[in-house]
Specification:
single chain; mainly alpha; Growth Hormone, Chain: A
């Protein structure tokens, strides 16, 4: 089973792009209060600061497809690793708000590129019978990265390095970014990209080590060639054309719904959401770690069954879970609005007392905060439990499915551009959700979660009526089933 070991090793290394994707996405959640203080940011500019990385992801998702086609999937991932490293070090050493925005934007380009190229690369090296589970390793690493970011933030906050706390939270990402860079040089190039470039001897060598669907390396190469060997199917052909309308619409829909669930609002603002629901600072960070742990465990479960249950069934389960959990969260914010506001005001008063250094004022504010947190306790518990169900639903449904589905539904000759379109849509919606959440939540947390719940009702209808099943179908056959000739 040398081939299988080589395949798994290459998959794990490529999926490190997903781990850094998850870490970079979630690490800012522990720094939002610091950023508000250091740069004097109101809700609008805090949302913009958080969204700066997401604007970068939009750029990364748009531009990643062309270098992935021209220079190769692996070479593009090497460039992504460099961007992650530069962003981590630069964000930690930022000398003003503008430099911080710049380095977060650079990291966002890396995230956008990884979201396109990592799952695409893994899909192209994987036999169909293993493709769902192997591409889902990217999602596993994304949620592992999220958990590591939440846990890292919690540990650094407990160590309390003072005013440099938020800088350490960003800087630790440089270590896994460097490891990703060096490990990529022991992975093979995508065999499908090699065939597209006419490098057949290299493609045979790689397929011989990775394994094939056809059982014969030469037969596998012929099938790949057949899928792109007509005069009207070349890497230079137009992408937005009638032949690709169905996969284009499918990609846009699944990517938009992914973010309309509000998942990135939770990833970027989890401690803030729990503090809105009456949790203290340490408790909010610890509850955030619980969210990351739930995400990781349920993602592992989804990976184990995605090639058995199928993509569509997991999306159905996830959609129902979304609707129930988001509805309960919205209700908790509506029903406990006064208690939550009182707890938030008491926490703010405690922060101000601590900054002033008046021990009598600190004790008075601490007593008031404890009483307010206790009053909000029942509602806060509903929010915590509901959001744990929400993250479990995401892990089982959209989280496990989106990157697998996007890597499958486009034919070889436009897969890079199709994956880029899906990622572009995903990150545009992510930026919109992350930018607007502080503004909406400042007005009413219930309104934000009620809106996300309504969007998930629409997703459920889309899954029931439109979404096709792709499990176990070789990539070269999926295009025929979608009517692409």
């Amino acid at each position: 089973m040398v081939g299988k070991g080589y395949l798994v090793r290459s998959t794990i290394i490529a999926a490190l792009g997903g781990l850094l994707f998850g870490f970079d996405t979630a690490v800012i959640s522990g720094t939002t209060d610091w950023l508000k203080k250091v740069y004097a940011l109101g809700p609008f500019w805090l949302g913009f600061t958080v969204a700066a990385a997401l604007i970068g992801t939009i750029v990364g998702a748009v531009v990643a497809g062309r270098p992935a086609d021209q220079y190769g999937r692996r070479t593009t991932l090497v460039a992504v690793a460099v961007l992650y490293f530069v962003s981590a070090v630069g964000s930690a050493l930022a000398w003003d708000w503008y430099s911080f925005l710049f380095f977060r934007f650079i990291g966002g380009i890396g995230v956008g590129g990884a979201s396109v190229v990592s799952p695409m690369y893994i899909a192209e090296i994987s036999p169909a019978r293993l493709r769902g589970r192997l591409v889902a390793v990217t999602q596993f690493n994304i949620v592992l990265g999220i958990l590591l970011a939440f846990f890292s933030n919690f540990v650094i906050a407990r160590i309390d390095p003072g005013s440099a706390q938020w800088r350490w939270m960003f800087g630790v990402e440089a270590v896994p970014a460097a490891a990703f860079f060096f490990l990529l040089f022991v992975t093979p190039r995508s065999p499908r990209w090699l065939v597209l470039k006419g490098r057949l001897d290299e493609a045979r060598w790689v397929l011989d080590r990775l394994g094939t669907d056809a059982g014969s390396v030469d037969q596998e190469i012929r099938e790949i060639q057949t899928s792109v060997a007509t005069a009207h199917h070349t890497l230079e052909e137009p992408f937005f054309r009638r032949a690709y309308r169905k996969p284009i619409l499918l990609a846009i829909a699944i990517a938009a719904f992914n973010q309309l669930s509000g998942i990135n609002a939770l990833m970027y603002y989890a401690p803030h959401i729990f503090r809105m629901a009456g949790a203290g600072e340490d408790s909010a960070l610890l509850q955030t770690v619980a969210v990351g742990g739930t995400n990781l465990v349920l993602t592992m479960a989804a990976m184990a069954v995605i090639d058995h249950f199928g993509r569509r069934r997991l999306m159905l389960i996830g959609s129902i879970g979304y609707i129930l959990s988001l509805g309960a969260t919205a209700w908790a914010f509506y029903a406990n609005a006064a208690e939550f506001r009182a707890a938030a005001a008491a926490a703010e008063a405690l922060d101000k007392a601590r900054e002033a250094g008046n021990q009598v004022a600190i004790q008075t504010a601490l007593d008031a905060s404890s009483a307010a947190v206790a009053a909000a306790g029942a509602g806060g518990t509903v929010v915590l439990v509901s959001l744990l169900v929400f993250i479990a639903s995401h892990a089982v449904g959209q989280g496990a499915v989106i990157w697998v589905f996007l890597s499958e539904i486009f034919p070889n000759q436009v897969r890079a551009r199709g994956q880029a379109l899906g990622s572009f849509t995903h990150w545009v919606m992510a930026a919109a959700i992350s930018w607007t959440f502080p503004l909406i939540a400042d007005w009413s947390g219930g309104h934000a979660f009620a809106f996300y719940c309504a969007m998930m009702v629409l997703q459920l209808l889309w899954v029931l009526t439109v979404m096709p099943e792709t499990k176990g179908v070789p990539l070269e056959k999926i295009q025929r089933e979608l009517g692409i000739e």
